[in-house]
Automatic annotation (TrEMBL):
Entry similarity comment: Belongs to the ABC transporter superfamily. ABCG family. Eye pigment precursor importer (TC 3.A.1.204) subfamily.
TM helices/strands, residue ranges: 369-390, 402-423
Protein known as: ABC transporter domain-containing protein
UniProt cross-references to SUPFAM superfamilies, sorted A to Z: P-loop containing nucleoside triphosphate hydrolases
Xref: Pfam families: ABC2_membrane, ABC2_membrane_7, ABC_tran
Disordered: region residues: 1-55
InterPro entries: AAA+_ATPase, ABC2_TM, ABC_transporter-like_ATP-bd, ABC_transporter-like_CS, ABCG_dom, P-loop_NTPase, Plant_ABCG
Membrane topology field: Multi-pass membrane protein
Assigned keywords, A-Z: ATP-binding, Membrane, Nucleotide-binding, Transmembrane, Transmembrane helix, Transport
Organism: Triticum aestivum (Wheat)
Length: 437
């Protein structure tokens, strides 16, 4: 796969230059951008790296690559980015390249485990300590770290306090995140502005709620999480599956608010999404498609159908384009044939394997098993110190009886502490049994 030439930062872009995509070029009255070049394709399923799109804005007067960011926006590019495990046993991203621009929403899509969140974490500087990355990442054409307030990251999980109301959560967050140089009235005004942008006015006095208490809906929780992050007016916003767990209507409302925010504020927004519906897919300006850690397609979302069709994978009528793309590039469920049912392992084999699995589980669970082991050693040292060298008289007989009774009771209580491990093994055993039937 050829290495993509990325657009570089242009300090003073011309407003007459066409935006990303043919629709904007048509509005300016200029020539339509050329058709996306295609690479040799051996098959999108058999060779994920075989499909690639290189699409950029082109200044037709000078014939050079340009980019057209909003004034004061953040243009982020990444080229030949690799992410591997620290021990070098696994490679998650294989030399991926791309870019995101102000005022646009870039959707990062792909099968589960293809590296979508890893790419987002790498660009946001949140990569796990067990992973290491290399490659060229630039902010507005320069190699620099993202400063506080420049970027924001919305995780997949909604980290919210269940007992607070929506208004309280936003007001408290505004007072914490915004600088002390701002007046309290200005902070509250900024909070109210964010509330309006995310459409949370009707839920201001409702408690957030949680697992055991009823509160706001799932879509409102997601919009609240985004609202808390945009209080500082970041120029670059990372979203990890903002539509996860939402129905199609809630997903559309969330992404529609995000797209409006990008257009109005000139934010650069990158969102990891998983199988969006047609209405949500039409909101995205750009599409970044990954499979097995490799770039499959990068370009305007509106051109993705044409790209796959030109490479022999047209989208059937009445099918969601995003579903079609994922079916085409997903290799996780290709089976060479139906597995023939065989007899289960012998009893001795099961005992050996389960014992080994339990040992590995206990060895790696530092917060539970190793902590208990340390407590047991401490208790044994205390008992040994208390009952050390107390002689052979009548009083020593009573002391020995007390020690035996205390030790037997303690051992019983300590044995009860291991009961959760049996529950865990029981659940795993039920799952194994269901899978084997």
């Amino acid at each position: 796969m050829a290495t993509s030439l990325l657009p570089r930062w242009a300090p003073t872009p011309s407003p007459s230059q066409p935006r990303w995509g043919p629709s904007a070029a048509a509005l300016t009255g200029e020539v339509q951008p050329p058709e996306p070049p295609t690479a040799e394709v051996e098959g999108a399923v058999g060779s994920p790296g075989g499909i690639h799109s290189e699409l950029h804005d082109i200044d037709h007067r000078e014939g050079r690559l340009v980019d057209t960011p909003h004034d004061g926006g953040v243009f982020i590019t990444w080229e030949d980015v690799w992410v591997t495990a620290v021990d070098g046993r696994a490679t998650i991203l294989h030399g991926v390249s791309g870019s995101a621009r102000p005022g646009h929403v870039l959707a990062i899509m792909g099968p589960s485990g293809c590296g979508k969140t890893t790419l987002l974490d790498t660009l946001a500087g949140r990569l796990d300590k067990n992973l290491r990355s290399k490659g060229d990442t630039r902010i507005n054409g320069r190699r620099q770290r993202l400063a506080f307030g420049i970027s924001a990251y919305v995780t997949q999980e909604n980290m919210l306090m269940d007992t607070l109301t929506v208004r309280e959560a936003i007001y408290y967050s505004a007072q914490i995140q915004l600088p002390d140089t701002m007046l309290l009235a200005d902070k509250l005004a900024r909070a109210n502005e964010a509330i309006q942008e995310m459409g949370l006015t009707s839920a201001l006095e409702t408690r957030i709620g949680g697992r055991n208490t009823k509160g706001i809906s799932g879509g409102q929780r997601k919009r609240l999480s985004i609202c808390l992050e945009i209080l500082t007016r970041p120029r670059l916003l990372f979203l990890d599956e903002p539509t996860s767990g939402l129905d199609s209507a809630a997903s559309f409302h969330v992404m529609n608010r995000i797209a409006d925010l990008a257009a109005r504020e000139g934010m650069t927004i990158m969102a990891v999404v998983h199988q969006p519906c047609n209405e949500v897919f039409e909101i995205f300006h750009g599409l970044y498609l990954l499979a097995s850690g490799r770039t499959i397609y990068f370009g305007p979302a509106t051109n993705a159908n044409e790209f796959f069709a030109s490479n022999g994978y047209p989208c059937p009528p009445m099918r969601n384009p995003s579903d079609h793309f994922l079916r085409t590039i997903n290799r996780d469920f290709e089976l060479g044939g139906v597995m023939i049912r065989r007899n289960q392992a012998s009893f001795l084999t099961k005992v050996f394997v389960l014992t080994r699995r339990s040992f590995v589980n206990m060895y790696r669970d530092v917060g539970y098993y190793w902590l208990r082991l340390g407590i047991y050693i401490s208790i044994s040292l205390c008992l040994g110190t208390i009952y050390y060298n107390f002689g052979y008289g009548y009083d020593s007989i009573r002391s020995r009886s007390s020690m035996l009774m205390f030790t037997s009771g303690l051992l019983t209580l300590m044995a009860i502490g291991g009961f959760p491990s049996f529950v865990e093994e029981m659940k795993a055993g039920i799952m194994d049994k269901n899978l084997s039937t």
